[in-house]
Amino acid sequence: MSTWERSESSSSPSAPSWFSQFWSSALRSKPLAPPSETTIRATSGQGLVRRLSLFDLLLLGIGASIGAGIFVVTGTVAHDTGPGVTVSFIIAGGSCVLNALCYAELASRFPAVVGGAYLYAYTAFNEIIAFLVFSQLMLDYHIGAASIARSLASYVITALELIPFLNNNIPSWVGHGSEEIYGAFSFNLLAPILLVLLTIVLCRGVGESSILNSVMTVTKVVIVIFIIIVGVFEVDVSNWSPFAPNGFESVLTGATVVFFAYVGFDAVANSAEESKSPQRDLPLGIIGSLLICIALYVGVCLVLTGMLPYKSLGGDAPLADAFTSKGLQYVSVLISIGAIAGLTTTLLVGLYVQSRLYLGLGRDGLLPSLFGEVHQTRHTPVHSQIWVGIVASVLAGCFNVHILSHILSVGTLTGYSVVSACVVTLRWKDKTACQVFGKSISSRAEGLICLITVVCCGFAAGVFYRFGASFIFLIIAVIIAIFAAAALHFRQVYTSTPGFSCPGVPILPTVCIFINIFLFAQLHYEAWVRFVVLSIVTVGIYAVYGQYHANPSSNTLIIYQKAPTEAD
Tens digit of pLDDT for each residue in 157-167? Predict the structure, then answer.
């Protein structure tokens, strides 16, 4: 009898206690289907349509990662780091590349199913961990979408005020946001309107939304490249000396700050069901888009720090100020256009990813089946998309969500860490018991203990670094993590994988976990509280609803829909 069937029989007199049933349900995992399968499990009679080419996936990743921040973050961090901010972006980018390699393997291994980090956790670990990953990611996405919508509305109003008769004649509540009420409420009219428009585009189909994303992303990238080319002729190499005026520690601190500028490449993994050739294109889209983003960030950093002394950088628009100081005011207009395009693509992709995650949970029963339905003609999860748009519109229209920015990134770092751990666990081959300190323990349990040890060491190292503890404590944490990684390497047997394979397993994923949790420790303490509170709420929702409705092994099959251009 399967685990699912046993849980269904819990109402019988011989059924286990409620806690036993909860634990049995929570530990269920999703069956791993062969990579060659061309069908997916779902509860609907229609599927998503395969329209996205490799070029579309590259633009999807770039669109999600590069927003208005490339015109702002580069300068604000350079003010504290100096020209060494370039190294900060390279270090942060290198760290993200390691995470991208992990994502690429799993995207290649699960090329047929939507869900991203949630799906990977469901297959590698269990149901409750997958649900926890979803909730942490989704809170980031919801607050992030509302915050970006408000920023986009503000940029649009600023651009409109360039028209003489509109200058200073647009009420602040239209786009910039009204005055705060009770410290949290702030009305904004334009942000929900922009969200509604983008939601309509996404509901019409992935083809329409892909076209909009492509146009906006290309516009943004062209503007960034043009800014780099123009700026090169204004560079004074003497501004690059000293390169790291505040020492390497400031460069490393800068890397922890700019790490989040690259967040978004993982959005490509959530387009598995809409990619024309997912097993080939998903890894290329994930890694390729990230490498392009690194090149653009480094180029902007070199130009910016070469144009002006680093001490004069900072403010709300450092890049625009740098070009204005050189008499190139027209570049400021291009930066505004690039910022609007960048925020639009970031918001569009964010809404897209959220709906696909809801789609995955709706299919698996962890959320009402309404979220798992796909429109028969549009081939989009309309109900999920509308729900995502409503949540973002309410948050953006009524609340000053910018004050919540310091609790963001928790879901991102959690998701990245879990994905890295999934790469390791799904490669394990030997599941037999072994002897550890004279006691019999399964090979999988030993491996999980090692992974948890790495997590604890990463957090401890981050806390020691953050609060300036003795360097010896940091070294001890690193050494323990190294021993745990060595145990994973020498005491586990690993299988090869079809498609793209992450190099250096288990060492590379273990390094990813350590770095991600180290960065997690650098977040505001309120972010830690948010992680704990949301986890408790999530477990409560699962206990009341999820455990009774989830069906990870549904046998309903659905055939992929081909794009019209590919039809026979």
Answer: 888 887 888 88
